[in-house]
């Protein structure tokens, strides 16, 4: 039998995805910081690209959390 049963609330499985998203955010933040330290510039294309990816991942996380609470 599957570990997910019909009477198990779906919300109980959400923390795992939230943790995955948080880890992805941390990885992107670290990559952006490392790239900034290498480039010595906040406006380097590589730093801006990582910043945009980080913004999108944070937005994804926030939307996910909001949907979990509804």
> Can you summarize the main beta sheet?
none
Q: What's the gyration radius in Å?
A: 17 Å
Inertia-based shape: elongated
Query: What distance lies between the first and last C-alpha atoms, to the nearest angstrom?
Result: 29 Å
Q: Determine the fraction of residues in helical runs and give it as a percent range.
A: over 70%
Descriptive notes:
The chain has helices at residues 14-39, 45-69. The longest helix is centred in the middle third of the chain and has 26 residues, at 14-39. Helix 1 (14-39) packs antiparallel against helix 2. It is mainly α and 70 residues long. It has a domain at 22-69. It holds the Pfam family SpoOE-like. This is Aspartyl-phosphate phosphatase Spo0E family protein.
